[in-house]
Structures are given as structure tokens and as C-alpha cells.
Amino acid sequence: MKKKLLSAVLVLTMSATLFAGCGSTDTETTETTDATETTDATESTDGASAEGTLKIGGIGPTTGDAAVYGQAVENAAQLAVDEINAAGGVNGMMLELNFQDDEADAEKAVNAYNTLKDWDMQVLMGTVTSTACIAVAEKTAEDNVFQLTPSGSAIECITHDNAFRVCFSDPNQGKASAQYIGENSLATKVAVIYDSSSVYSTGIYETFVAEAANQGIEVVAAEAFTADSNKDFTVQLQKAKDSGAELLFLPIYYNEAALILAQAKTISFAPTFFGCDGLDGILAVENFDTSLAEGVMLLTPFAADAQDEATQNFVTAYNEKFGGTPNQFAADAYDAIYIIKAAAEKAGITADMSASDICDALKTAMTEITVDGLTGSGMTWTADGEPNKAPKAVKIVNGVYTAM
To answer: Please, which pLDDT band fits residue 284 given cuts at 50, 70 and 90?
Structure first.
């Protein structure tokens, strides 16, 4: 079994607006695709075309506590599929998306994968959450099915050589968060509340603590909880307050974060709150007072209020089709479909190829393409499945995510 190395350390650059930068590529060996281009018909790299349908499976939580993630991924992926088909498809092929609910549960994710296999899926875009993704990754490796997860950030999500991701890994998020806090002098004393039962949360926490020492940051309190004790955070918050923390780092998901913000208010604890992409969705928590999230900062690859044309076109199209504002999980998924398109074109994929043959072709093609997407410009991939792109950050201002 092929083991993967971590991608190169991301370097954050201070910016008044967004983190800036993009990966460079060799134009003689790579093909650049604009993930937001929707007007021109698609042509394969060798000029050939083929008929038929490429079946793309999707897996994520469309019900349950993490439904806001899965619903966004399904919606945005379908939007991208519809756009690509309207523009002529991929190498003459139409795309078909079949999205299955896993409720962010590993066993249900494997069941969803088996359902998609019975449907004769040829490529998998998923899964959305890390624990479910790890379970499915073992199955796709056994079957040699190409897997591109939009948001599975645990290292184990792409251990095998058939798996790639759009998002950053957990270690990269933890390191980048510490660098951003240190380089922007947000705090010197930081407390952390994390979920010790979550591979996502612990992965970020561990690399955050390691990098904090390099940034002159003292971790004055590190308090854990588990999935069985994720409702009352009074003890953890009191310890963080008593430690003199100026900033509370929350490498957790939005449901727990919403409770923490509400409970922090009851003990008059008002540090700077900083999180990662798991906090994206906090403004949509039912019965949550969004004013409590004012000033919360998080690393995320997408800000819906960014003024570039690609983002605004996507936000408008998403709102018209599904209602509401897309989150970063939606942007990851939208990019994922266009990444599959770019790799399929580069590899000359045809609809009559087996899933295994398609996988072998896409493994190589992924290391040869460059994609300009919503979540990064000049995105490239290593053979280990990790993306090369610059991270971004947002701040909640007046109840909306605002690019920093």
C-alpha cells in the first residue's frame, strides 16, 4: 500500500485583503483550465470526441448534524455538471451525478459507495467529511476507482494513490492558522478547545501547537471534549478564561462552536475567536444568535463576498438555482467537478472505459493539469494527492463572511 507524504508547508503572506499567491507550472507539460468557464464547448486535448455519459458518484451528509456541508456540496456539484453539459460536455461525453447521503457516518458512507458501484459509477467526487472519507477511501483503493474529495481534510483520506483532494489537509490548516495569528500579531496567549474524538480536530490541533512555538505564541490552555460530551463547555471555557487567553482557537465544527460562543457570553469571556473551515456554517445554525459570531475569524478557501468575477458569477448562479449563499464546501465541490473535467480531458477519457482504466489515466493526468478555481488560482496536485494553492481567511462582519 502506497503511503503518502505530507504536502509542502504552506506559507502565509500578510495581506490587507486576501492571502495572495498561486502555484507555478511548466506550460510545456501542464494544461490550464479555468474552473469557472461555462460558455465555450469543451474539446479534448487531442481533438477527438466521444459520445456517452461519464457517471460521477457523490457522497456526503445531506441529513443529520453536518447536512449543511453535504447539501452545499451536492448543490454546487450539480450546478457544475449542468454548466459543463450545457457547454458540450467533456470530450463529447455528458456528465451524470448521483449523490448519496451518508449522514457523516463511516458505515453509511460505505453503504452509499456500494450503492454507487451498483449504479456503475466511474469516478467518485467525495466524501465530504473526513471519517466517512477514510472508510470509503479503503474501498476505492481496493476497486481502483478514482476519488477526489472536495473537503476530506484528514491525512488518511488520500493515503492511496487513487485519491486526491481539493481542500487543504488538517496539518496544513493547523500550521497555517498559527502562522496567521503570529504574523498578524493577533495574540501571544492562546487557548484551544478541540474534539479529541475527531481526526479532523486533533490533526489541526497537533500541528497548531507545534507551529505556535515558532510564532512566539504560548498555548496557555488546551481543553478537549468528545462526541459524547459536546454540549456543555463550561469547564473548558472557564479554564481558558482563567489562563488569560487573548484568543480562543477552535479547530472544530460549527455546531459545537455555536454552543461555545453562546456559553462564553454567559461567563463574560470575550477573546478573539479563530477557527478553520469547520466553522463555515455557523451562521446557519438553527436558533443561533449570529451576533455572537461577530468578529470570528477562520481560514477558508472561499468568501462569497469576494469581488472577482468568477466568485460573483458562482454566487449568483447558486442563489438562482438553490436559494441562499454558497459556503466554502460548495466552492470546493464546484471546483472538484471542473477538476475532474480538466483531468478527464487531459487523459482523453471516454465513456466506454472501465472505472479502473479511468482511474489509472486520471492518476497521471492530475499531476499534469493546472486549474483556476474558486478556491485557488493556478491549482496543481502532487502525486500524493495534495493540492498546491494559497490559503485564504475570512472574518464575520455584520453577519456575513468577509474576505480578509
So the answer is: confident
